[in-house]
Amino acid sequence: MKFPVEVLEQAKNREKLLEILINGLCLNCLGRQFGMLGHGLTNAERGKILREFANKLNKSEFKEPDVCNMCNNFFKNRIGKIANSIAKKLGDIEFNTFLIGSIISREVARRQEELWERIGIEDVEPIKSEINRELGKILEKLTGKKFDLKNPDITIVVDLDTDNIRLQIRNLFVYGKYQKLVRGIPQTKWICSRCSGKGCTFCKGEGKLYPTSVQEIVEKPLIKATNSKSSAFHGAGRADIDARELDYRPFVLELIRPTIRKLDLKKMEKQINKSKKAKVTSLKLIKEGKYIIRKLKTDRIDKTYLAEVEFKQDIDKKKLKLVKGIIKEPIIQKTPLRVVHRRADKFRKRLVKAISYKQLANRRLQLKIRAEAGLYIKELISGDDGRTKPNISEILGNNVKKIKLDVIKIG
Ligand SMILES: [Zn+2]
Ligand SMILES: [Zn+2]
């Protein structure tokens, strides 16, 4: 048998064992100081074997101390009670996996440090990791859920000094694609910046600047079904508030602190799609939420737009042919005047990949434009006071009165 004979053949380990026994530690705390040895045993089992071995060897009678000088009988008396309070706190929250993190008292940390200064830290296991593991085992029995180090639904943080229990619930990520069928609603909820959503005279007490948004339409049934606190909406780019998005645009809705994790997404889709303003498709729960969000944010996909432009004067038919020449060189754009108050004023260089047109009336032109991600389309048409060059208005020698924009293809 390897444990403990082989371990204790070394004189330093015998000294170490004796030192611990003299100090009056419980079996858990004793076994833990040899925690990296004797694979497959619990620390309490290790402790028992070691104490019996030492008693035989030294003809001594080390007994279980009334109060452990390391853990204050935590493993004997308190651990079960704490597991019970955690189970109570978890209540009706729906989850499959959990992780436990504990904060030990300064006093216990100090005692552990002092012991390690005398016996060394070779082969020891810290008390924190035994507490987390043993609490986890009890909790697995109490709840029928699984301990999971990698990607737990809930992380339970126990402060052993104050008995305070905190639950960190992993957010749920729903991937999908949306269409915005009307003009005038933003992609995400636009919180009033003057009152940060509290409600003020500027936002007429609403806390937001638009009555609804794609986010609010999509999140509504999902927040309700998962009993989440709120949501964060991550779109693969976004169109202007007054542009429709007629092709499906990918997004991830992050549900914050859900206490229900099972979702009937077909049903959710149906409820969302009752809206006349936005529609969704392909909803699915995803595990690698953060990764997909990063990908959505960095993938640079071409977009195709349909613009209906009204000019101030009649369109010059001879100049119209020149419009196609715009694909030859990159478009240089300074940050548009309409957003420069909230974004850095700098240059941007993007390509128009294809353009075609159809004259609808003397002053009305339809443009179909395929552009690299990030090109400001309205400014490409209007010229934005010379901040975008070249531009359609300049080519036609005609000022723009109004633009109606639709995104008709993404990718
Ligand atoms: Zn102990
Ligand atoms: Zn406000």
Features:
411 residues; alpha+beta; VC0802-like; 4 domains; 8-stranded mixed beta sheet; elongated; binds zinc ion
Give an overview in words.
- There is one protein chain.
- By secondary structure, the protein is of the alpha+beta class.
- The chain has four domains: 54 residues; 96 residues, VC0802-like, CATH 3.30.2130; 127 residues, Alpha-Beta Plaits, CATH 3.30.70.2510; 108 residues, Alpha-Beta Plaits (2-Layer Sandwich).
- It contains 13 helices and 15 strands.
- The strands form three sheets. Strands 5, 6, 7, 8, 9, 12, 13 and 15 form an eight-stranded mixed sheet that branches. The chain has a four-stranded mixed sheet with strand order 2-1-3-4.
- A hairpin with a 4-residue loop joins strand 3 and strand 4.
- Helix 5 crosses helix 7.
- The longest helix is centred in the N-terminal third of the chain and has 17 residues.
- The chain starts with a helix and ends with a strand.
- The relative contact order is 0.09.
- The model has no long low-confidence stretch (mean pLDDT 94).
- The site of one zinc ion has 8 residues, from loops.
Short description:
The chain is of the alpha+beta class and about 400 residues long. It contains 13 helices and 15 strands.
CATH fold descriptor of the largest domain: Alpha-Beta Plaits
CATH architecture of the largest domain: 2-Layer Sandwich
Radius of gyration: 33 Å
Structural classification: alpha+beta
> Helical content, roughly?
25-40%
Low-confidence stretches: none
Can you summarize the main beta sheet? 8 strands, mixed
- What is the CATH class of the largest domain? Alpha Beta
Shape: elongated
Instruction: Indicate the mean pLDDT.
Output: 94
Terminal CA distance: 66 Å
Heteromolecules bound: zinc ion
Order of helices and strands: HHHHHEHHEEEEHEEHEHEHEEEEHEHE
Number of helices: 13
Structural domain tally: 4
The total strand number stands at: 15
Strand content: 25-35%
